[in-house]
Amino acid sequence: MKVVEPTAQSVAEAATLLRDGKLVAFPTETVYGLGGDATNERAVAAIFEAKGRPQFNPLISHVLDAAAARQFVRWSETADKLAARFWPGPLTLVLPRAEGSPISLLATAGLDTVAIRAPSHPVAQALIRAAGRPIAAPSANRSGAISPTRAEHVAESLGDKVPMILDGGPCLVGVESTVLDLSTATPTLLRPGGATREAIEAVIGPIALSHAIPTGEASHKSPGQMQSHYAPERPVRLEATSVAADEGLLAFGPTVPTGAMLTYNLSPTADLGEAAANLFSMLRALDRPGIGRIAVMPIPQTGLGLAINDRLRRAAADDGTNQRG
């Protein structure tokens, strides 16, 4: 771990780390973020791993401005008004994913929406510009710990789990960004934060309040609502040790049952980081006409396996057809 002043050279080095799939902690006006390339599934998996984050909650992707955001989400007139007033700044907008958007499915927790914002901190802006890609970044601390507003907080919480920390001094806002869902019929406040409800309503009129607005450990909750996570249309069978001819198999490890209609292996070498990176894309690939059910091999309940199994249990929520074994 390296804690460095944000010079042109150190920012360029940090950008290189991001493009290489590594993690960098950096200051924003809200809190310090643990950044990874938002278009790189493996880098996003590393964020969850470093934080010890217990579920694959959606992560916020950080961009320079509204023009950049349009590459990744389906922009709207309402988004335009809000960005004109609050960007760069502590407001995150949740918008439908643009067709062909390169944002990682793991970063969006498999949802068809993307949480996106443009930070105002000059170091964050310089890093995004130098990296040339969106940066996925939750707060730079272990999951459940207090959000970091200084570089030393990041070092104390994450240690060697992050190769570089850009020390931009204390964060000015000190609380996370407000999260506003624009994918709903009425804009919905999912998380209160640095942009006030009153200021938002002064721009776009009344907004709805989510029943799942996080309280307490708000920074460690999903920017959206957990129950809205992507679930496949096909029933899901967990802990599968054999497979039927009409099933698609989500495999794990080197020893894979034969006979499935279609098989994708999360990680032939049983690497949980690789498995996490592949989870949502492979689950979607198996959710296709002709496949009667998706069978999932056992995943270890350790490390990232806890998050993988959490997501799979949600995908296999009991509707009377899903089974184990």
Write a structural description.
This protein has an eleven-stranded mixed sheet, with helices on both faces. It has a four-stranded parallel sheet with strand order 12-15-13-14, with helices on one face. It has two domains: 2-225, DHBP synthase (Alpha-Beta Complex), CATH 3.90.870.10; 236-315, no CATH class. Strand 9 (178-181) and strand 10 form a beta hairpin. Mean pLDDT is 89; it is low at 212-230. The protein is an alpha/beta fold and 325 residues long. The longest helix has 15 residues, at 272-286. The chain has helices at residues 8-19, 41-51, 66-69, 77-86, 122-131, 151-158, 197-204, 272-286, 304-315; strands at 2-4, 24-27, 32-37, 60-62, 91-96, 113-117, 135-136, 164-166, 178-181, 188-191, 208-209, 236-237, 247-251, 262-265, 293-296.
List keywords for this structure.
DHBP synthase, 325 residues
The secondary-structure class comes to alpha/beta
Top-tier CATH class of the largest domain: Alpha Beta
Query: How are the strands of the largest sheet arranged?
Result: 1-8-2-3-7-4-6-5-9-10-11
Amount of helix: 25-40%
* Beta-strand content estimate: 15-25%
> What fold name goes in the CATH topology slot of the largest domain?
DHBP synthase
Rg from Cα: 20 Å
Low-confidence stretches: 212-230
Instruction: Report the biggest beta sheet as strand number plus sense, adding barrel if it closes.
Output: 11 strands, mixed
- Looking at CATH, the homologous superfamily of the largest domain is DHBP synthase
Distance between the termini: 43 Å
- Compute the number of structural domains: 2
What gross morphology would you assign?
globular
Number of helices: 9
- CATH-defined architecture of the largest domain: Alpha-Beta Complex
Q: Mean pLDDT, rounded to whole units?
A: 89
How many beta strands in the DSSP annotation? Answer: 15
